[in-house]
Amino acid sequence: MKQYHYKYGHGEAGFSLDPALVAAELAIKDYPVLTDPVAAIEAAIREPIGAAPLWEIVSPGQTVAFIVNDPTRVANTHVFLPVLIEEIHAVGVPYDDMCIVFALGSHRLMTEAEMIEEVGADVAAKIKMYNSDCKDLSQFKYFGETSRGTPVYFHKKVAEANHIILTGSVVHHFFSGFGGGRKALFPGVAAYETIRRNHSMMFDPNAVIGKLDGNPIYHDQIEGAEMRRPSFLLNVVLNEEKQFLKVFAGHYINAHREACAFVDEVYGAPIRQETDMVIASCGGYPKDINIYQLQKTMDNAWCAVREGGVVIILGECEEGSGSAQYEKMMQQCRTPDEVEATVRQDFQIGAHKAYAVTRLMKKAEFILVSAMEPDFVRMLLFTPAKDMAEALTLAHAKLGPAPSITLMPMGSLTVPRLVSGG
Fold first, then answer.
1. Mean per-residue pLDDT for 24-45?
2. Phi-psi bin for 183: left (phi > 0), alpha (psi -120 to 50), beta?
3. Listed residue (401, 235, 209, 219) closest to 301, CA to CA
4. Is 37-238 a CATH 3.40.50.150 domain?
5. Is the distance from CB of 315 to CB of 325 less than 8 angstroms?
6. pTM of the prediction?
7. Among 129, 84, 116, which residue's Cα sits nearest to residue 231?
8. Is 421's pLDDT higher than 70?
9. Rounded Cα gap, residues 77 and 117, in angstroms
10. What average pLDDT does range 66-88 have in this prediction?
11. What dotted CATH number matches 2-28+268-418?
12. Which of 20, 215, 250, 326 could be bridged to 255 by S-S, CB 3.0 to 4.6 A?
């Protein structure tokens, strides 16, 4: 037997397995970190992909809006934003003609302290900062409707600027294909109805992780973004330790596409077979702070388990489900099919997470090792387990003594891809 120790909350969870049963242990590719991120950022913005350099795009007398991540999506904004700001300031654009709008989408508003932490004290002292409150329609300007029927509203501070500069990090996204790129604008600084109508396309079979071409959510977002086309983009790719791996800058579509290809190369994990069992750690706190965050790991593990198999998720969930709307939905619905029917009938942000989680349970049983009450876990349609020993006992009772197993110690990051020869 071999001992394994995976991250769980602020600590670790240990378990023993016969290594002969392990078909694969997936990890992100060991890619060298940037030794001088600032130099890499400067090089990227001065030799951009598919666009002119910033100094040719922006002129004195023009206004610039930077869209930056909120705390739920780590991008190391405090490192690259000062470089972007000074590049534009050097052209002759005063700080008063720049602003920062946080891409909250439908997330909660940020506090002043959180804003300062996100961009750094120096930047916060120079540049005006705004939350994008999707529920306050007075903050938004209407641009029209996409061909898929989405009404497009963007935050006025962004809509009225001469130049929009998108920033953020790129990771896989469970129904938009990939994060980053246009998502800073749409849904980042869009009104609630814009977000709701766009995300309601998540039922489409092409709205899946790692797919842009043919994904209706992506194409709808691009069509909306073209109504107020961004001037420039800076996206970064980070590793599990939040260190810079690569910087991409330039045209908001072309540079983002190159970043996505790189993310696939680093985070994509080739597998030769779907296995009977998958054991996945979210990667500890804050990736397993609640079910809302844990769902990313579920999606990735789902890619590696066979139909009718078992997934064991290590996720402490010290903050419970993470969404009152999600809990309310699960109190009403007792099966994944019921959840889907209810969400299809009245699609609302938050409730959509109930569908995102439970749709995965149609393929496999999800055993959750967490700190939550077992009855609460059952209400969410997981099988509860107090520790890995209990989880493995439950899994073996279903699968027998010798199931094939895939291990995912970085479950929130690694995205399994079935390759030929399996």
1. 95
2. alpha
3. 209
4. no
5. no
6. 0.90
7. 84
8. no
9. 9
10. 93
11. 3.90.226.30
12. 250
